[in-house]
Amino acid sequence: MTATLSTQSRLKIYKSSPELYDAMMALSTAAAKDVDPKLGELIKIRASQINRCAFCLDMHTRDARKIGVSEQKLDVVAAWSEAGDLFDETERAALALTEAITVLGPHGVPDDVYEDAAAAFSDRELGQVIALAVTINAWNRINAAVHTAPPRR
Predict the structure, then answer these.
(1) Contact call for residues 31 and 132 (beta carbons, < 8 A)
(2) Which of 36, 64, 85, 114 could be 41's S-S partner, Cβ–Cβ 3.0 to 4.6 Å?
(3) What is the pLDDT of residues 24-82, one digit of tens each?
(4) Total domains in the fold of the chain
(5) Could you tell me the CATH number of the domain that includes residue 21?
(6) What Pfam families does its record include (predicted)?
(7) Domain range for residue 50?
(8) What distance in Å separates the CA atoms of residue 31 and residue 137, rounded to the nearest whole number?
(9) Running DSSP on this structure, what letter comes out for residue 105?
């Protein structure tokens, strides 16, 4: 049996379950607290690329532009590890950790990825970066399940 994929919208989950939306927004706000907004958007964009969430990619690339993330970074964030020194040490550590959380291997997040992130961030910041990656993955999966499409502009 072959799975078929439709781009047709499904359940309007945030209308049928507004408490879900409220809880996710509260989690998003808590996760973003004390994280540089530009770094937060890069985390959200990278996870959304991996998860193929067009709605979140549209939203977070627009948000990133509004707060001054460079077009060059947005152009190459999917290949950040090949971009030389375009991304600084903290961005690289956060993006590697985001990828490891988003695509969990059989043993979870590799020690070297975690250790690099732990060296780049304080304990509080590391917790926030982990929470941001987890939260955007939850948003991506909700939107993928119900086929939330980006708005036409």
Answers:
(1) yes
(2) 64
(3) 999 999 999 999 999 999 999 999 999 999 999 999 999 999 999 999 999 999 999 99
(4) 1
(5) 1.20.1290.10
(6) CMD
(7) 16-146
(8) 12
(9) B
